[in-house]
Specification:
By secondary structure, the chain is mainly β. It has five helices and 39 strands. It has a 22-stranded antiparallel beta barrel. It is found in: Cell outer membrane.
Length: 710
């Protein structure tokens, strides 16, 4: 598309607006909403950008931060958007691959996603799909595939005014994954990827009309692979069908399905101190692989969405979803705290088998009404809505406590049998029910943009084994403002809160919800003339009512802990032309314990680096003999990270290099991508139970993809 001047004052008619919309000219939501049903309209500002092209990695708006289509420069919150073009350009195959492009975010690796949540600004975040929760105690609900994903939006800080379900609302942030929608024009692609560790990965995404009022889409992926870790092999598949029905000119009904499956021999990590000291085989499997069943994750999601526009200034959206997952987990691990090695043979460890079956079902619903009005001297977008969530969670742990034998992790000989899984000896049966109502007003007064929202939540928590049966009532506020300092530059400030019920709390008093509070401010950039956009932010976030041991009753806990994260972060994208893009992010995060009965004050929060960042560049040849060629490279770096609380062992920092090269001709694209090109031998934090363990990062790996447009 040719360059578009960034700011033009013109006279529009209704026909002109329709023509611009069909051509794809970007109009801000607040500007298009002002269009009246008259033949001639008053002068308005049309904001364009010279970097709006199909392969652009720049995102200028968000639908997750406010549940409305809002320019990012007007959102008083640090929000990062990863569009499909960026995911494809970097050959990202998992959510953790994509999330390295966001500052201050520590993703859960696919191998450890059963045990931990992603971390944003030091605190746990949750993963949502199309604005609705999937029970988010950890990252086990991460999508098995990024095929069929339109974009990923990361909201930093608590988000309790617009989102919640299950145990409550996210304390640290929200990662919302937006699905591709069925389209009226036939299209799509099929591809196959292969490479290191016997990876075989076919995938596809197809869309088109079925009738004049019905469109369909289906995306799917299959992957079989080995691993750089001994004995570990994996398999996964995902299928995502969807249909959209044009029930009336302004009414659309959409039905979506998502079926995920993954299986892998569960990896439990290496004892950190010895691994970091070079005493162990870095790729050893610390377990009993003979007869150990694979850990499987199966989930099914059905979503129905109805959208109706009463007029240009009034629309209704209602979405309901059912989510079910089943995870039979089988692990074998070392646990030196209770089963230490013989001091005479310090690398020979007893191996303990474990099995855990977890099932989750969640029914959730959200309906909201958006009204756009001029009143009180300004322009307002008022959103009011209700939500409901009912979640059942059950788990049964089988642990005999008898070692299956021993293994020398310095020179492993894999001759241990897993044995017969132990019957469940510890169970967890929980039910969570949430009902909420919320109200949000986005007001514009010239250069000032105000956002305020309030949510009332009733959360009923029932945990059978702990004897917890309590109902919480919570009012969650959020307020923020952005001010346009100059065209494309805005300052912002915001305050928000979050709350979440404690999981499996055992104490002598009724459990209180954990709460978080976030204050942030900074600059927003949308400099169309030079192609620079992004956010520069400073923040201070606290987490209260953290569960700590009861000093007077060793078998119980109390909620007296407090944690705090402070820091600075920047996320920038520079696309001066359609041929070149540069992504840069950096975060300084000081996350620490500020109050506790057992953990020293000042201890650093696990897995959170003090310094982290990424720089990634890409160049595309747009003309000449090499037209269709593109290549890019990136560097991701972390400083040292602690593994546990209290702090005992830390993982040194490291940096890894990735690169990609593609060539497109006719309907075909060939892509070559590489991971850890310098073959850096480093360890990443890993979580398995509470003992400090680590995982070796992926060695140098190369993949080749052939893709054909259909």
């Amino acid at each position: 598309m040719p360059d578009v001047e960034p700011h033009i004052m013109i006279k529009l008619t209704v026909a002109t607006v329709a023509s611009l919309a069909a051509f794809g000219a970007p109009l801000h939501a607040q500007e298009t909403s002002r269009i009246a049903d008259t033949s001639t309209l008053s002068a308005i500002k049309v904001t364009g950008s010279r970097y709006h092209f199909s392969a652009s990695i720049t995102a200028l708006d968000s639908s997750s931060a406010t549940r409305t289509a809002t320019p990012l420069i007007e959102v008083p919150q640090s929000v990062q958007v990863l569009p499909r073009a960026l995911i494809e350009a970097q050959d990202a195959r998992s959510l953790s691959d994509a999330l390295v492009n966001v500052s201050g975010l520590t993703p859960a690796q696919p191998q450890e996603s059963l045990f931990v949540s992603p971390i944003v600004r030091g605190f746990p975040a949750e993963i949502y799909l199309d604005g609705l929760p999937m029970y988010g105690m950890n990252a086990s609900n991460s999508p098995a595939s990024l095929v069929g994903i339109k974009r990923i939006e990361v909201l930093k800080g608590p988000t309790s005014t617009l989102y919640g379900g299950g145990l409550g609302s996210p304390l640290g942030g929200l990662i919302n994954i937006e699905s591709e929608q069925p389209e009226g024009a036939a299209g799509g692609y099929a591809a196959i990827r292969s490479g290191s560790y016997e990876t075989l990965n076919p995938y596809f995404d197809l869309t088109g009309p079925l009738t004049s009022t019905t469109n369909a889409r289906i995306a799917g992926e299959y992957q079989r692979n080995g691993s750089w870790i001994d004995k570990v092999k994996g398999e996964r598949w995902s299928v995502q069908p969807s249909l959209s029905f044009q029930l009336a000119p302004k009414t659309v009904l959409q039905v979506q399905g998502l079926f995920n499956h993954s299986s892998q021999l569960e990896y439990s990590g290496l004892p950190a101190a010895q691994a970091l000291g070079g005493e162990l085989d870095r790729y050893a499997f610390p377990g009993a692989p003979i007869g150990q069943p694979r850990t499987k994750r199966d989930s099914q999601i059905a979503t129905v969405t109805l959208r109706h526009e009463f007029s240009n200034s009034l629309r209704l959206a209602a979405t309901g979803r059912y989510y079910h997952s089943r995870i039979p987990e089988y692990g074998s691990f070392v646990y030196p705290e209770y089963y230490p090695p013989n001091p005479a043979t310090p690398t020979i460890y007893p191996i303990l088998p474990l099995n855990l079956l977890t099932t989750t079902s969640e029914s959730t619903f959200d309906a909201n009404l958006l009204a756009k009005v001029d009143m009180l001297g300004g322009y307002h977008e008022i959103l009011t809505g209700i939500s409901y969530d009912h979640t059942n969670f059950a788990s049964g742990l089988g642990f005999a406590g008898v070692p299956a034998g021993t293994i020398d992790l310095a020179d492993p000989d894999y001759n241990l049998h897993f044995g017969v899984p132990a019957p469940a000896s510890a169970t967890q049966t929980n039910r969570y029910q949430t009902a909420a109502a919320y109200l949000q007003d986005q007001a514009t007064y010239g250069r000032l943009h105000l956002t305020g929202s309030l949510r009332y939540t009733q959360l009923h928590l029932r945990e059978k084994e702990q004897g917890n049966n309590v109902t919480y009532h919570r009012v969650s506020p959020r307020i923020g403002a952005t001010f346009d300092l100059a065209p494309g530059v805005a300052a912002y400030a915001a305050y928000a809160t979050g709350f979440r019920a404690p999981f499996a709390f055992i104490g002598l008093q009724t459990p209180e919800p954990e709460t978080s509070r976030n204050i942030e401010g900074g600059l927003k950039l949308e400099l169309a003339d030079i192609g620079l956009s992004g956010t520069i932010a400073a923040f201070r976030q606290t987490r209260n009512n953290v569960v700590t041991p009861d000093p007077n009753n060793p078998l119980y806990s109390i909620q007296s802990g407090q944690q705090r994260a402070r820091g600075f972060e920047t996320d920038l994208v520079w696309e001066p032309t359609a041929a070149f893009s540069l992504l840069l992010n950096y975060a300084y995060t000081r996350a620490e314990v500020t109050k506790d009965n057992a953990i020293p004050v000042g201890d650093k929060l696990p897995r959170v680096p003090r310094h982290s960042g990424r720089i990634a560049a890409r160049y595309r040849v747009l003309s000449g003999p090499a037209q269709g060629l593109s290549f890019g490279a990136g560097v991701t770096a972390y400083s040292g990270r602690e593994l546990t609380l209290p702090n005992t062992v830390s993982v040194p920092g490291y940096a890894v290099i990735d690169a990609q090269a593609s060539y497109s001709f006719d309907r075909y694209t060939i892509t070559l991508s590489g991971v850890n090109l310098a073959n850096r031998h480093a360890y990443a934090p890993y979580q398995y139970l509470s003992f400090p363990v680590v995982m070796p990062i992926q060695p140098r790996s190369v993949y080749l993809t052939l893709k054909v447009e259909i």
